[in-house]
Structure formats: C-alpha cells, structure tokens
Amino acid sequence: MKFATLANGSLDGQLLVVSRDLQRAIAVPRIAPSLLDAMQRWAAVQGPLQDVYDQLDAATAPEGSFAFDPAACAAPLPRAPQWLDGSAFLNHSHLMDQAFNKPPPPMVDTVPMMYQGASDDFLGPCDDVPLPSEADGIDFEGEFGVVTGPVPMGVTPEAALGCVRLLLQINDWSLRALGPHEMKTGFGFLQAKPSTAFAPVAVTPDELGPAWRDGRVQLRLQVQWNGERFGEPHGGEMSFHFGQLIAHAARTRRLTAGCIIGSGTVSNAARSAGSACIAERRVIEKIDQGESRTGFMRFGDRVRMQAVLDDGQPGPFGVIDQRVVHAQP
Amino acid sequence: MKFATLANGSLDGQLLVVSRDLQRAIAVPRIAPSLLDAMQRWAAVQGPLQDVYDQLDAATAPEGSFAFDPAACAAPLPRAPQWLDGSAFLNHSHLMDQAFNKPPPPMVDTVPMMYQGASDDFLGPCDDVPLPSEADGIDFEGEFGVVTGPVPMGVTPEAALGCVRLLLQINDWSLRALGPHEMKTGFGFLQAKPSTAFAPVAVTPDELGPAWRDGRVQLRLQVQWNGERFGEPHGGEMSFHFGQLIAHAARTRRLTAGCIIGSGTVSNAARSAGSACIAERRVIEKIDQGESRTGFMRFGDRVRMQAVLDDGQPGPFGVIDQRVVHAQP
User: Fold this and answer.
1) Which range marks the domain in which residue A46 is found?
2) Domain count of the fold of chain A
3) Distance CA A266, CA A243 (A)
C-alpha cells in the first residue's frame, strides 16, 4: 500500500491512500483520519485500507478519488512519537570522522550510532526550508527510513524487522557549522538538526518487492542540487540493517507505534556514486584534492531527491523538492 | 492553576483540574479532554479552566469533583511534542566532567548543554520503572522543568520566558554505564535515557508566587532513596534560566505548544545540600574521599522526590515515588 498525508492545517493532516502509479489518491476518513491514527490501530485498519488501495488500482477510479498532488502534501507523518536517526552507512561515518577531525568512536563497526531528533514539526516534500543563517553551513542529507509498530524493550534485531510497517525517503536537514560543538558536548545534535523533511509517499515493504531485502532499501537515491547531479548512492550498502537500528533504539525502552528510524546519509564506497550530502563531498574533496571546494547551500538554493530502481525507473516514494529560504524573525 | 492527568488508557490521558491544596480534582471534558489539547488551544481554554479552578477552591466542592489520587495519575503530559533536557546547573556539569574523566566542553559557561529525549512514553509519578539490567548503572535525576506554548525560531531568552505556561518536577531516569559511550560518539544520549517520569501536578507559574523568580524554580528538591535522605538542593542555583534554555532549543527551529524543557539535575555548590542523582554523589565521594562508595540502584529500590518551600512546607507538584523493577522480556 501507498500512503500520503494532505496538509489540512491539523497537526496530523489527512490520510490519503495513493494509487500504485502515484496518479490518484483518496481520503479515507471513515477508516482512519490520519496516518498516525492508522499506525496506532493498524490491526483494525490494515484490511480496509488494502481494500481501498486495490479499488484505487482498478480500471475505474472509485468515487471520491482525485489527482494526487505531492505539492499539497505534508510529511506522511507530520509528527511522530519519535524520530531516531542512525548513521548506518559506515562509509559515510568514516569519511565524516575525517571531516570533524576526530578519532572513530569506540565500537563504531559493531554498535550503530544514533541520535534523537525532534519529531513534532516535520516538513513536507515541497515545503520551503526556513533557516536563520547561511553561516550555519546549510546541508541536506538523503536517507531512507522506516515507520515501526509498537516495539518491545529488548527486541532482537531479527524480531525488530517484523516491526517495520512502512518505508520512507528522508531529507535530514543539517547545519554543519553547529554540529562539531554539539558533538563535543557529548549531548548530541540539537541546533544542528532543524526540521526534517520527507518524500510524499510512505509505502508498505511489499511495494518494493525484491528491493526490500536484508532489512535494507535496495534503491539508488538520486540527489540534485540546483538542477545538477550530486550523487545517486545505493541503499544496499547500509552497514547495519533496519532491524539492528530498531533493536538499538529499543535496548532500554519500548517504542510506540509510529516511531521513525532513519538510516543516516546514504553513502557508497565508490567515488563514482557521488554523495547524498555536501559535507561528505567536501571531505572527499579534501582527501582526494587536498581541500574542500564545494560550499554549503545559499538561500534560494534547491535540492531534489528521488529514489530510483536499478533500471532507472522512479521508486515509490515520490520526489523531495525543496528550497532553502531566510527565516523571517 | 494546577493540573494533573488521569491515566485512562488513552495516549494523552484525561485532564484534571486540581485544587490548590491537592485534595480534590475534577475532569473538564467539555473544556479540554487532555492537557496537551489545552496547551494547543490555550487562549481559548485558559479562562474556562481558571473558572473551574476557582470553584474547586471555594468552600463547597463542585459537583463531579472527587478526592485527588496521585497514584492514579500519568505524567501531566503522558506524551509531549518534544522533551529537551538541559544541564543548567553548572555545579553538576563540572562535577560530572570529572566523573566522565573528560575536559569541560567548549563554552560550557556561556552556551547551555541540552539533549533531545524521547517524549512519546513518559512515566507517571508512582509508576514502576522497568529496566533491563542492574549492570546498566540505574540512577535517578531530580529536576525542574517547564512546558512551553508555541515558540518562534530565534526567540530571545527574555521573550522565551513569556512562552512558559507550566512548571513541572521531573525524574530523568539515567543508565550511567551507557552514557559515556554515547557521549563519545558525539550523537548524544539514547539508550542511557529510558522513559522519564514526572510529578503528578503541573502548575502555572503564578502558583509559585515569589518562588518563580529570575526564570528559575526557587524551591528545594528533597530526594530520598529507599526512605533515606539523599539531598535537597535548591533550584535557585540554576546557572542558565529557563528563558535561556528555551532560546537555545529554538535557535534553528520553532517549538510547538506543549514542549517540555528540563533544567538538568538540580545541584548546589554546598556539599551539605546533598545531591539529586547518584552519579553526582559518587564523584563527590571520589573527590572528597578518594573513591566512589555508593553503588547504583538495585531492582526493588525506591526513590522519592518532592519540592519544598524554604519553610519546609510541600511545594505544589506533589510527590514522585517510584520503584525500579526488572523488565520482563
């Protein structure tokens, strides 16, 4: 199934079921008003939602359906119980350690790194990104993520994979000038992580077919900055799978239905794949060419992200297409 | 005004207005079903809630009111949009740097340290605390906190004080064996911070009279571990006031109504005040006596926390009284 959320001024927005080809959508207020509500009552709503989805893909569009407009969408979950973002592509972690000029953390290859992000105010796929200053080092981070059902404390990585309900595509906005200080405090990212953005469509894992395999989203993430190719790293190189990330998050506490777990920046060992964030390109430039040449984003800049199949066909999440703007005080 | 939340199985619980003397309470479903809802519609509900509060304090208890039972309470906000915990008592920060054997972070005296905690699954004042292992170094942290209204990005510390809607008393459960690794990653606390607990009663700042002054809760926090005195540090020694903490949190993003900002462990320079967490006592023992003698909590142990006025009278938040238990897998 494919879901989106119409921005309607409410905190959780209006749940939409979206057709397989992302062309049509329908609201289902009698089944569930919002995607968060559906996550919280999944056993009761899963069947009825599947029926609507099947009808939406039939030859005759059902009454009440309309053309799907990603620009009218909020994040699939405009707010979530938790937003926990890993750094599961160790290629990226190792490069970033060089960028921050710090030794690799202990156990970096065996224990996932993960930070707790704000989850009350996510951005939609085409929302402007208001930020206070270009001097903060404005950067995007292309990621994949999952939405969980309820997860018991102490879940195993294998059992945790069974808690995955939906897959997501994410732009984890970052302010690189603020990160190093917050890392040095040991308390983690806070000002360095403004509101995170999401592609319009959340999908059940079966929608990916063989591209959901080994607990990883096996798609390339095409990233363009101001219309130019920036990278298209492949999600299959994730060093920890999503079950491992969920189990890490639930080691000392349970998770409630609707929690979002992110992969961290998609990153490949092959230089030809490019990068999914500017910071990584900058450190590669430093390593390969002696100095960082690429600057961070300016107000007015745009970033576009879209997952694609190995044959280049568009993936199921739709497109993130955002512009950075100067926040008005 | 004084508010509490009856645990009724729903995610946000049932809002109660509590009498000034904490003896009686009344549900107000026609005004607001939950405290989170009241925070989100504060301008509309503040007056009607004040009317109910005034009636509750009148000589004749209004129809529908009942004896207030803290043990039936959830946290005042069982879930909140964000939970951001500072470390605003620098006496504690400086001691803890010694405990973690690390140099003080840069700008520690001028920039508050703050981590983002999980906010989807708080514990009530008398809830058992299920944890997986005594080996994790189970510890309490007695704190004060505030609930904010909507806070714009870039708010000044002075304007941020005007965003304070409610005051809280908090027990920020911590697992000390897991903290140092998570600090070393730079990504901050996650497994080291299981679900946080709250005293039953949230109060508007006017309830404290002169004990809400300079953006600080000017009360002592009495802490008992298994019935024995552990400390009673005073909230007035907070090095950053709550307006500064809120402004720090909102530097690069707005906050939505209902966010909770914590003070970090209440801590005083005078050794005679004792401590509000075991980790601090342990490092004081190490400094003053050459080694840490006090161990962390065992399953079955209890902690009790209550704010008191300078004359020893109970403060307005009620009592946190919790027992640590072994989480069942």
Assistant:
1) 2-72
2) 2
3) 17
8 Å CB contact of A115 and B87: no
- On chain B, the residues whose CB falls within 8 A of the CB of A130 are 153
Q: Which residues, 6 or more positions from B100, have their beta carbon under 8 angstroms from its beta carbon?
A: A186, B179, B180, B183
- Sign (positive/negative) of CA torsion B121, B124, B128, B134? positive
Give the nearest partner residue to A253 out of B81, B118, B254, using CB atoms.
B118
Q: Which residue has the tokens 């005073």?
A: B234
Gap from A131 CA to chain B (nearest CA, Å): 6
- Report the alpha-carbon distance of residue A40 to residue A25 in Å, rounded: 22
ipTM summary value = 0.96
Q: Which of B181, B190, B254 sits opposite A116 (nearest CB)?
A: B190
CA distance B102 to chain A (A): 10
Residues B92 and B126 reside in one and the same domain: yes
Minimum distance, in Å, between the CA of residue A160 and any CA atom of chain B: 14
Which three-class secondary structure string do you get for A115-162? EEECCCCCECCCCCEEECCHHHCEECCEEEEEEECCECCCCCHHHHHC
Q: Are residues B52 and B120 in the same domain?
A: no
B273 with B128, same domain: the answer is: yes
- A152 and A7 in a common domain: no
Amino acid at A274: G
**Do B64 and B170 share a domain, yes or no?**
no
Kindly state whether residues B33 and B59 are assigned to the same domain: yes
pTM for the model stands at 0.97
**Are residues A175 and A201 part of one domain?**
yes
A168 shares its domain with A316: yes
| Pick from A183, A252, A255: CB nearest B186 | A183
One digit per residue, the tens of pLDDT, for chain B of length 329 reads: 999 999 999 999 999 999 999 999 999 999 999 999 999 999 999 999 999 999 998 878 889 999 999 999 999 999 999 999 999 999 998 998 876 677 888 888 899 999 999 999 999 999 999 999 999 999 999 999 999 999 999 999 999 999 999 999 999 999 999 999 999 999 999 999 999 999 999 999 999 999 999 999 999 999 999 999 999 999 999 999 999 999 999 999 999 999 999 999 999 999 999 999 999 999 999 999 999 999 999 999 999 999 999 999 999 999 999 999 999 87
